[in-house]
Amino acid sequence: MGSLLEVDDLHTYYGEAHILQGVSLAVGEREVVTLIGRNGAGKTTTLRSIMGVAQPAKGRIAFGGENIAGREPHEIARRGIAWVPEERRVLPNLSVADNLRLAMLGAGVKDAGGTLLAEVFEYFPRLKERIDYRGRFLSGGEQQMLAIARGLVAKPRLLLVDEPTEGLAPILVQTLTGVLAEISRRGGTILLVEQNLEVALALSSRLYVIDQGRIQFSGTPDELRREPAIQQRFLGV
Ligand SMILES: Nc1ncnc2c1ncn2[C@@H]1O[C@H](COP(=O)(O)OP(=O)(O)O)[C@@H](O)[C@H]1O
Ligand SMILES: [Mg+2]
């Protein structure tokens, strides 16, 4: 009770395929909670279900005490959940600045003095240097930074981030891990999807291990460290 996000017994289908088979999880204010599991486990489907992009057939999703299951994605966004999708979706023909302005517009956020933009550039000095570059000319790491920055300028109460470190060089994994830690340190709340166990253990207050659409383990990083069998069975470590 009292968590910012509470997901209870979520079931989601794609056609006949029963993908999420009773997922329950909670994210408290200022927590970083990670959903971890191998490819096809149901991580993205969980985020899509929370955002209303996939329609859960059954289950409750409470955000700030209100049931949001079955609502439209834009309504859910307006209530304060921002989603940074796995595929990033940076607009290739718009500049970094315009990608960010569009995200603010979509979220109904005004940034008259440019303070919000300045704040986001504190996390990503690299993006500030690239402010006039069009999306298509950004590296993979820069696109990931922009995708997260777009989430931040929506001033969300909860940020959903899907595999931000996927496919990035170790140095960029480190940079992005640092940024997520800093967002958390400044009071942000994050539901993270990761396959990188080291990143997940370093960032999270708690973790959920998902496999075949079911939560198989939940606990703190220390508790997961003490479960090599769980790590081996569900994470292939
Ligand atoms: N649009 C879709 N239509 C049908 N099946 C899908 C679709 N998207 C994902 N799936 C299937 O749902 C399962 C969970 O996928 P997903 O949530 O994307 O896993 P993860 O993000 O953990 O890798 C997988 O078996 C995947 O093949
Ligand atoms: Mg995924």
Explain how this protein is built:
The model has no long low-confidence stretch (mean pLDDT 96). This protein has helices at 43-51, 73-78, 96-107, 115-123, 125-129, 140-153, 170-185, 197-203, 221-225, 228-235; strands at 5-14, 17-27, 32-36, 56-63, 66-67, 81-84, 158-162, 190-194, 206-211, 214-219. It has a 6-stranded mixed beta sheet, sandwiched between helices. It has 10 helices and 10 strands. α3 (96-107) packs parallel to α6 (140-153). With 237 residues, the chain is of the alpha/beta class. The protein starts with a strand and ends with a helix. 38% of the residues lie in helices and 26% in strands. It has one domain (29-53, 73-235): 3-Layer(aba) Sandwich (Rossmann fold), CATH 3.40.50. The site of magnesium ion has 4 residues, from α1.
